[in-house]
Specification:
The protein is 81% helix and 0% strand. The protein is mainly alpha-helical and 93 residues long. The protein has four helices and no strands. The chain has one domain. The chain is elongated. The relative contact order is 0.10.
């Protein structure tokens, strides 16, 4: 491969490593945010059902802004956790 072709390649090892690091940071940030929402819903006794639902919806929207087109992953990983938490916290059926 010619040196010029390497420079024009948008995914060289350095940029791929950088992209992976950015994604790892975004994943950690999202996990922190989701954990914070879960802890708040679980521990704040003054939180109403509507407030908790709104917090969860806002966390979902933020996660999907961070990871567009990953709604299925959210639905498989986070949605069941939030549903279980809401059932336990507010004694829902």
């Amino acid at each position: 491969m010619e040196p010029e072709a390497i420079r024009n390649d948008p995914v060289t090892p350095d940029t791929a490593a950088d992209a992976q690091e950015v994604e790892r940071r975004q994943i950690r940030r999202m996990q922190f945010m989701m954990d914070l929402v879960m802890q708040t819903v679980a521990q704040d006794s003054s939180l109403t059902l509507d407030e908790a639902s709104r917090m969860i919806a806002e966390a979902r929207n933020a996660a999907l802004r961070m990871f567009p087109e990953k709604e299925l992953a959210y639905d498989l990983i986070w949605k069941p956790r939030f549903q279980r938490l809401m059932r336990e916290r507010f004694r829902l059926n």
